[in-house]
């Protein structure tokens, strides 16, 4: 509406040719309208940035770079953790790059300092030994491209370690572990 009035006012001014003092009310109208228009523009920009650069996380998740994370210290098998994350609106976390690795290890360090704790991530080689994938849902698994294995890992101890955990004691390095061991876990919503 305001934009329409502004366009209309500018057109009307141009019809007058040389503007004289008796056109002041019109000019004032344009000035006021233009001010409102700028406010409208700012408002739209604000909405754009609010909606475009940040997303609303499920309750209890924290937002980092438009992704949402929640660390839960509920001792769970890998499969239980997977279900838990799904129920609260996410999935077990995947790590795409060093930046995301830093974000997740940072959250865990904030919660646990340097304590010897481990948290499940979404990785597994349960489909084929030593072919590590982020498991996802509904056939959406994908190969793990970024890795931060602790030296000597994955070692597939007793031919039974098929699930990926993040070791806070090893400064966030990856380890393969049996899936029935009870760990905390990291959920992520995208
Ligand atoms: Ca394995
Ligand atoms: Ca291992």
TrEMBL record:
Matches recorded under InterPro entries: C-type_lectin-like, C-type_lectin-like/link_sf, C-type_lectin/snaclec_domain, CTDL_fold
One Pfam family from the record: Lectin_C
Residue ranges of every copy of the C-type lectin domain listed in the record: 64-188
Gene3D superfamilies: Mannose-Binding Protein A, subunit A
Designated name of the protein: C-type lectin domain-containing protein
Taxonomic source organism: Sinanodonta woodiana
């Amino acid at each position: 509406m305001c934009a329409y009035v502004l366009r209309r006012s500018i057109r009307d001014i141009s019809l007058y040719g040389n503007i004289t003092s008796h056109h002041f009310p019109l000019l004032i109208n344009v000035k006021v309208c233009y001010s409102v228009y700028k406010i409208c523009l700012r408002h739209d920009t604000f909405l754009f940035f609010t909606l475009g650069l940040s997303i609303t996380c499920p309750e209890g998740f924290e937002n980092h770079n438009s992704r949402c994370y929640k660390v839960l210290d509920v001792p769970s098998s890998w499969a239980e953790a997977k279900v838990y994350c799904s129920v609260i609106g996410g999935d077990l976390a995947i790590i795409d790059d060093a930046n995301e690795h830093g974000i997740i290890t940072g959250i865990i360090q904030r919660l646990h300092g340097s304590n010897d704790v481990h948290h499940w991530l979404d990785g597994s080689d349960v489909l084929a030994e030593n072919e590590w994938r982020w498991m996802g849902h509904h056939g959406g698994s994908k190969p793990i491209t970024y890795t931060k294995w602790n030296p000597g890992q994955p070692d597939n101890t007793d031919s039974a370690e098929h699930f990926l955990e993040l070791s806070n004691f090893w400064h966030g390095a990856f380890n393969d572990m049996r899936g029935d061991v009870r760990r905390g876990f990291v959920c992520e919503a995208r």
